[in-house]
Design brief:
Number of strands: 3
Number of helices: 6
Shape: globular
Strand content: 5-15%
Distance between the termini: 40 Å
Structural class: mainly alpha
Radius of gyration: 18 Å
Order of helices and strands: HHEHHEEHH
């Protein structure tokens, strides 16, 4: 799994480099592009299984490059909504087009049936990990300041 993750990140970086993106930037743009509405950083992080701080760093860079903007959130004063700009949508489209040949090569090698099974297995693994850690956090007692005394 770690090897495949590393190869995916490296492949993503190589494929989107010409568009001025990194895999991390592409992930955040994709999370926004596939959402039916703008999202705050915390929701992007939760959806992607990343820390809020990691996503915030990427969002700050994307804002600086004009790929996203931060807008007022009617549901929360401090948690701004992250919105793709036209340049951000174009960058996401470019990234998606850049990966088409690799996707086709993987599909040719693995086959659609096996790929569908692999995706289902990965989703089950993600669900199992989510459930496992949710049950652990509910069962654990928070550390108290006096525990450090």
């Amino acid at each position: 799994m770690f090897e495949t993750n590393g190869r995916l990140v490296d492949a993503g970086n190589e494929l989107v480099r010409a568009a001025g993106l990194t895999t991390a930037w592409w992930q955040v743009l994709g999370a926004l592009g596939y959402s039916s509405q703008p999202l705050p950083v915390s929701h992007i992080a939760r959806n992607m299984g990343l820390t809020r701080q990691a996503v915030q760093r990427v969002v700050d860079l994307l804002v600086g490059h004009g790929l996203v903007t931060m807008e007022a959130n009617p549901h929360h004063q401090r948690a701004k909504l992250i919105v793709l700009t036209l340049a951000g949508r174009e960058a996401l489209t470019g990234a998606e087009q850049a990966v088409v040949p690799l996707d086709a090569a993987i599909l040719d090698r693995v086959g659609s049936d096996r790929l569908a099974v692999a995706i289902a297995v990965l989703r089950e693994m993600n669900g199992a990990m989510t459930d496992y850690f949710a049950s652990r956090s509910a069962a654990t007692t928070p550390i108290q300041p006096e525990d450090f005394a």
